[in-house]
Automatic annotation (TrEMBL):
<feature type="binding site">
    <location>
        <begin position="127"/>
        <end position="128"/>
    </location>
    <ligand>
        <name>NAD(+)</name>
    </ligand>
</feature>
<dbReference type="InterPro" id="IPR017476">
    <property type="entry name" value="UDP-Glc/GDP-Man"/>
</dbReference>
<feature type="active site" description="Nucleophile">
    <location>
        <position position="272"/>
    </location>
</feature>
<feature type="binding site">
    <location>
        <position position="33"/>
    </location>
    <ligand>
        <name>NAD(+)</name>
    </ligand>
</feature>
<dbReference type="InterPro" id="IPR014027">
    <property type="entry name" value="UDP-Glc/GDP-Man_DH_C"/>
</dbReference>
<feature type="domain" description="UDP-glucose/GDP-mannose dehydrogenase C-terminal">
    <location>
        <begin position="328"/>
        <end position="452"/>
    </location>
</feature>
<dbReference type="GO" id="GO:0005634">
    <property type="term" value="C:nucleus"/>
</dbReference>
<feature type="binding site">
    <location>
        <position position="342"/>
    </location>
    <ligand>
        <name>NAD(+)</name>
    </ligand>
</feature>
<dbReference type="InterPro" id="IPR028356">
    <property type="entry name" value="UDPglc_DH_euk"/>
</dbReference>
<dbReference type="InterPro" id="IPR001732">
    <property type="entry name" value="UDP-Glc/GDP-Man_DH_N"/>
</dbReference>
<dbReference type="Pfam" id="PF00984">
    <property type="entry name" value="UDPG_MGDP_dh"/>
</dbReference>
<dbReference type="GO" id="GO:0006024">
    <property type="term" value="P:glycosaminoglycan biosynthetic process"/>
</dbReference>
<keyword id="KW-0520">NAD</keyword>
<feature type="binding site">
    <location>
        <begin position="8"/>
        <end position="13"/>
    </location>
    <ligand>
        <name>NAD(+)</name>
    </ligand>
</feature>
<feature type="binding site">
    <location>
        <position position="38"/>
    </location>
    <ligand>
        <name>NAD(+)</name>
    </ligand>
</feature>
<dbReference type="InterPro" id="IPR036291">
    <property type="entry name" value="NAD(P)-bd_dom_sf"/>
</dbReference>
<dbReference type="Pfam" id="PF03720">
    <property type="entry name" value="UDPG_MGDP_dh_C"/>
</dbReference>
């Protein structure tokens, strides 16, 4: 029986290994982590992450050929194939601070593999890492190997949160990069065999190591660039009276462009886009390509601009101050169908509103009060470390209220901000919400979830990203 061990039981390691176990009954899969709490949760009824369809997959395989453990050394030693899916945060100090990836966790994992391996192993890079990391890891392994043969593969993951199981069941492609030596090719084939259990052969792409690593960063940069492009157009739409949804529909009908990833929003979030673009920027700078670096940096600049623009819109339309006003925030996760808040635009929007002394009251169907407090207290990039290593000081607790219900959050509020496109926000009783609010009642829709015309008929003053403005807003420009 082929034995797989995955180091890192997070958003990628957990779902990916659960699907491998489901689709490959002849493979034994053990997911290990340094976080005892995470492993305990994976072994319980309440999994540590919310992902549609995940519970079902885990229940089918756990205890059969899928196991979760903190005994990292034992399972590394037993495995034929080791996936590494640990955190790769942005460095906060030293060389490359604010851009380069901090490979501390990756390096620790590699050294542990070198220490405990007594037989040949295939080591698979699953984390998203700057190009040529595999080469560095290879050096650590080879120099500490004591005669064991390691083959390094890059197998970046393309799943999106909220649709992880769907994406893993039916991936657009699986990418495997490896060395072009006979041993390297053999290792690529071994990993290909695992995916071939359910992924059609023509969707499994093999490349050299560097192409695989760079493709992952470039794919995320291209996706994020589409959102910043449509968000840039949304600002122009507001200034000129066009409707960004109509413009995006017309653009997306061109088969060369395609319709997906053209929804204007308060900004993109998530653990990947910003971090991966910063990595790309750093690599370009290191290779003496400042023009290319600046090109990609602007994708992030537009994203920051979009968040600031939103906050300024709220403040300027509410008589230029939100001080002491209750502002309800509906949605805190970075997208629907996940409880993940990493780099969610809600953090910057809430911090902006709190900076203007608003009384912020937040409701999200999947995010806990503890998580929201943690997010509002953490410094930039601190979130991407194993949870038990993140700083958290009780003195930093922010004056926000968190409710378990959208009606409670909006009761008595002066304004409502929709920051995540949860389906349930489409179906709320907005007449009831309007009646319970202070007047004039403001609606700021950062995800174009509600029909602005219907909201106006109810009585709200409405702002929707990239849509023609209410006359009230036209006279109150939101300058960044
Ligand atoms: N989240 C996504 O949608 C996504 C998609 C594709 C790729 N990625 C990439 O995959 C990687 C992991 O992302 P994630 O979202 O799963 O992160 P995560 O924070 O959810 O999980 C990482 C896990 O690794 C564990 N860990 C860290 N060091 C360890 C060590 N030495 N030994 C054992 N466990 C260790 C942590 O405790 C944590 O549970 C990142 O490089 C990310 O960029 C993420
Ligand atoms: O038209 C769109 C599409 C997305 N978003 C926002 O963009 C962010 C990212 O969304 P999405 O890409 O769906 O989620 P992620 O889980 O961050 O997945 C991205 O990042 C992963 C980590 O690298 C990759 O594996 C995936 O392929 C890539 O889509 C979210 O805040 C979305 O709300 C928009 O604002 N408009």
């Amino acid at each position: 029986m082929v034995k797989i061990c995955c180091i890192g039981a997070g958003y990628v390691g957990g779902p990916t290994m659960a699907v491998i176990a489901l689709k490959c009954p002849a493979v034994e899969v053990v997911v290990v982590d340094i976080s005892v709490a995470r492993i305990t949760a994976w072994n319980s009824e309440q999994l540590p992450i919310y992902e549609p369809g995940l519970d079902d997959v885990v229940k089918q395989c756990r205890g059969r050929n899928l196991f979760f453990s903190t005994d990292i050394e034992k399972h590394i030693a037993r495995a034929d194939i080791i996936f590494v899916s640990v955190n790769t945060p942005t460095k906060t100090r030293g060389l490359g601070a604010g851009k380069a990836a901090d490979l501390t966790y990756w390096e620790n994992a590699a050294r542990m593999i070198a220490d405990v391996a007594k037989a040949d192993k295939i080591v698979v890079e699953k984390s998203t890492v700057p190009v040529k990391t595999a080469e560095a890891i290879e050096k650590i392994l080879i120099h500490n190997s004591r005669g064991v043969n390691f083959q390094i593969l890059s197998n970046p993951e393309f799943l999106a949160e909220g649709t992880a199981i769907k994406d893993l069941f039916n991936p657009d492609r699986v990418l495997i990069g490896g060395r072009e030596t006979p041993e390297g090719k053999k290792a690529v084939q071994a990993l290909k065999q695992v995916y071939a259990n359910w992924v059609p052969e023509d969707r499994i792409i093999t490349t050299n190591l560097w192409s695989a690593e760079l493709s992952k960063l470039a794919a995320n940069a291209f996706l994020a660039q589409r959102i910043s492009s449509v968000n840039a157009i949304s600002a122009l739409c507001e200034a000129t009276g066009a409707d960004v949804a109509e413009v995006a529909y017309a653009i997306g009908k061109d088969t060369r462009v395609g319709p997906r990833f053209l929804s204007a929003s308060v900004g993109f979030g998530g653990s990947c886009f910003q971090k991966d673009i910063l990595n790309l920027v750093y690599i370009c700078e290191c290779h003496g390509l400042p023009e290319v670096a600046n090109y990609w940096k602007d994708v992030i600049k537009i994203n920051d601009y979009q968040k600031s623009r939103f906050v300024n819109r709220v403040v300027s339309s509410m008589f230029n101050t939100v001080s002491e006003k209750k502002i309800a925030v509906l949605g805190f996760a970075f997208k629907k169908d996940t409880g993940d808040t990493r780099e969610t635009p809600a953090i910057d929007v809430c911090k902006g509103l709190l900076g203007d002394k608003a009384k912020v009251c937040i409701y999200d169907p999947q995010v806990t009060e503890e998580q929201i407090q943690r997010d509002l207290a953490l410094n930039k990039f601190d979130w991407d470390h194993p949870v038990h290593l993140q700083p958290m000081s009780a003195t930093e607790v922010k004056p926000v209220a968190v409710t378990r219900d959208a009606y409670e959050a909006t009761k008595g509020a002066h304004g409502v901000c929709i920051l995540t496109e949860w389906d349930e926000f489409k179906k709320l009783d907005y007449v009831r919400i309007y009646e319970s609010m202070q007047k004039p009642a403001f609606m700021f829709d950062g995800r174009n979830v509600v029909d602005p015309q219907k909201m106006r008929e109810i009585g709200f003053i409405v702002y929707s990203i990239g849509k023609p403005l209410d006359s009230w807003l036209v006279d109150r420009p939101a300058v960044v």
